[in-house]
Amino acid sequence: MIGKTHSNRNLLTTDRIMTLTDGIFAIAMTLLVLSIEVPKKEAVTAGAALHQYLLALYPQFFNYFLSFYLLSRLWINLHRVYHDIIRTDDRHIWINISLLMFVVLVPFSASLDAEYSGDFSAVAIFHANMLVIAVLYFWNWSYAARNHRLIEADFPDAVITLMKKRMLVFPVTALLALLISIMTPSYSTLTYLFIPFCVVRLRNIQNSLR
């Protein structure tokens, strides 16, 4: 196991994981906006043509705000989790690196979904991207909490279980969105809007157990 105060500089600590996480999330969230292009004056004139062009950008703006929100919530939750994870090991590090690899992929999958919102393949890539992130996020905590491997020995088991249930909201929602996209690709991303209501309810229960 690797402790936060380990003196061996060849080993990574949880602090270094979060430093890398902050940088990756900042880059990914910034790249999201680059998929929304400002029209060239030569192609789109001011007035009605510009208004029509901006209205046509609705899918890009919706996916930008949705993806930014999902990444923001994930970043916040990861920081909360790392208040409880006090050490790390090689496998845990690679779980986190794998998670970050798919986080960086979000700007691409979100842009693809926005550009081809009516195509199942394009939409499915976005949902699959979110599903993999959600599963790795769940695995991150499950691995750390199993037999109190990377958390305090006296951490309440009831809280561990409830945190797992709260983290399952994301993968279940992504899987549901993927299934809905088979029938109605254009509206499947709306499924993610249910996440805040489920998470807030479970968080209130979790706080009462601490």
Name the features.
single chain, 210 residues, mainly alpha, two-stranded antiparallel ribbon, 2 strands, 2% strand, elongated
What can you see in these coordinates?
By secondary structure, this protein is mainly α. It has helices at 14-31, 48-56, 58-81, 90-104, 106-115, 120-145, 157-183, 195-209; strands spanning 2-3, 87-88. It has one domain (8-209). 69% of the residues lie in helices and 2% in strands. Helix 7 (157-183) packs antiparallel against helix 8. The relative contact order is 0.12.
Q: What is the number of E strands?
A: 2
Compute the number of structural domains.
1
How many helices in DSSP terms?
A: 8
- Which strand order does the major sheet show? 1-2
Q: Please state the average pLDDT score.
A: 86
Q: For the record, give the distance between the C-alpha atoms at the N and C termini, rounded to a whole number.
A: 26 Å
Shape verdict: elongated
Taken as a percent bin, the fraction of beta residues is under 5%
Helix content: 55-70%
Low-confidence stretches: 1-8
Structural class: mainly alpha
Write the H/E string, N to C: EHHHEHHHHH
Tell me the major beta sheet: 2 strands, antiparallel
What is the radius of gyration? 20 Å
